[in-house]
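Data card: per-record layout.
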Amino acid sequence: MRIRALATCCAAVAAVVMPATPGAAAITVGSGLSTSVAVPAATTPPLPLSVSATPAPTAVPCPKAVAPKVSRSPKPTPPPSVAAHRTIGGDALATPGLIVPPGVPAPPRVTATSWLVADLDTGEVLGGCGPHEYATPASVQKLLLAATMLPKLDPAQVVTVTREDLDIAPGSSAVGLVPGGRYRVETLWLGLLLQSGNEAANALARLGGGADGVTGGVRAMNEQARLLGAYQTHAVTPSGLDAPGQFTSAYDLALIARVCFADPTFRRYALTERARIPAQKAVRGRGFEIQNENQLVYRYAGALGGKTGFTDYARHTYVGAAERDGRRLVATLLGAEPRPRRGWEQGAALLDWGFALPRRTSVGRLVEPGELDTEPSPVPTRPVDPAASAAATSARPAGTASVAERPGVGTFVALAVGALAITLAILAARHPRRTDLGAKPPS
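The structure for this 443-residue chain is written out next.
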């Protein structure tokens, strides 16, 4: 009786231990068949992705040049800040203030509200002021258009400019293209980068946007920004003319500029000093010459070019790059005023500061295109779809088991207890029950 009771108890323990073990699942044997065991969901809650009780450090003020007071429109309200986006490129970049390597000379005083200096080749971020702060781009957004459409459009293709392409804000920058005029795509690019032509931006976005036209072009720009890791950039217009919800950051501009300057065709356009816009005899349009508005090209040794920008909301924005002693740097700045130094001069001063720093000096890095899309996703907290789980199981080769299906410690304990219970039950069957008084069994 005692042996049977012990056997019953062991069997009960095995029944309790087996389903309570997270690792208890179908154990696949060499034949590809499986012994069915209960497969409960793990009861341990997932750990949080990050836990931090450390308060954010106090921001170091950026060196500022005093600019004359100007009447300006209220700044657009940026979208809510996303903590993960502010640490792209390194935790040190998540500051609204100054971030530079320790012990280096102070950067120049500029009027820009945010800026960044980075190495185009190594991707090292040499320093910045509020590198992940939202700002309005103005015409430096045309660099995103170039990064998106240059690989897609044939520069030798001849296209017709439409009246819709000329639908731009009155008084805004334009090349002087005429509706019905036929121009090579290369001419449109030169008009975009030398003269900041907004009608050229519309035409290029329309051509690259496929059946959806400009809307498709802007959508492609935003997809490209996402691919580059420029998560704080959102385009609404291809030209950078102000529109609700349109923002970028100094860090994002450096990511975009790095892709542009990696393209030899872009570098050739950006360093072009003069270009000829051909006459359009069919629509009585005269030919004329345009010049590069980026003074860095003419007045900075080793200049690689860049892009200027201005709107009432954005104020002056600038991206400029240069090469010195085999080192290529880019400076991006947003929200600047033209006095005491113009935007390109502020960019030149930041480039000088960057070139004076020792090589391999950095406070962060520019992420590579597509890098953020390849990072592993967080562990899901929702239950796994049974159908998907079954499909995954059937797709595994015979004789294998997933990690979740491999037996855990509790499984082996349960099996051992179960084996003991079976042994005791066999012994009980072989030996009839006896009484302590030696009485015969009932007949």
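Known properties of this structure: The domain at 89-366 is CATH 3.40.710.10 (Beta-lactamase). The CA atoms of residues 296 and 430 lie 101 Å apart.

See the next section for split statistics.
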